[in-house]
User: What shape does this take?
Amino acid sequence: MRSLFLITRSALRLSRRDRLDAARAWLWLMGARAGLTLFSYKWIARLIARIPARRSAAGTTPERCARAIGRAVRLAHGCGCLPQAVATQCLLRREGLNSNIVFGVAHNQDGSLEAHAWLWSDGRILVGGEVAGRYTPLVTPRAS
Assistant: This one.
């Protein structure tokens, strides 16, 4: 109960636009998590490519989308790197901005493989970059 109180209190400190951005990001995050549970990534990627850009320019930046996802993740416990990257890519597509999800792998100390996904946009990592340096990208990032 205490954490719900803290989340509510911090949400009320945000501007109205930041709260709306976080709510929209949360919806995309839940959709991404459900979609990746039910369907293949290949199918999801095709859907993302079909997301139309808004007719009116909202003026949202890639950084603003990434911050909104960061806020939404606090309410979506257990949301891994791929749903976060997919949701952020959806937000960016809606704003008419290009991005690319990058998959990387690394060896654990026991020799097993570990995977990670991060979102690359306009020459920088927006989501998942905190640990991306540990992983070897499977393909070179490019805008889609």
